[in-house]
TrEMBL record:
It comes from Cohnella pontilimi. The keyword Membrane applies. The lineage of its organism: Bacteria, Bacillati, Bacillota, Bacilli, Bacillales. One of its GO terms (cellular component) is plasma membrane. This is DUF805 domain-containing protein. The keyword Transmembrane applies.
Length: 78
């Protein structure tokens, strides 16, 4: 049983940084700062607000964080 707890702890640490990066990138796509992730610390309401923010469509065109990844004129879209 102790091995399962160690493995799940290692797994949680391994996915922490990538999940934070994806969340911040998604907030940037909607034109918000990555600091909005801290609103998730508010029980229940914070998670609902973050869910709404991440479900919104990206800002059209460029924003202060860079170009829209869904626009067709990006080099990475090919």
């Amino acid at each position: 049983m102790a091995y399962g707890m160690v493995l799940s702890g290692l797994y949680a640490l391994a996915i922490l940084l990538p999940s934070l990066a994806v969340s911040v990138r998604r907030l940037h796509d909607t034109g918000r700062s990555g600091w909005w992730l801290l609103i998730g610390l508010i029980p229940l309401i914070g998670a609902i607000i973050l869910l709404v923010f991440t479900c919104q469509d990206s800002q059209p065109g460029d924003n202060r964080y860079g170009p829209n990844p869904r626009s067709g004129d990006n080099a990475m879209a090919t």
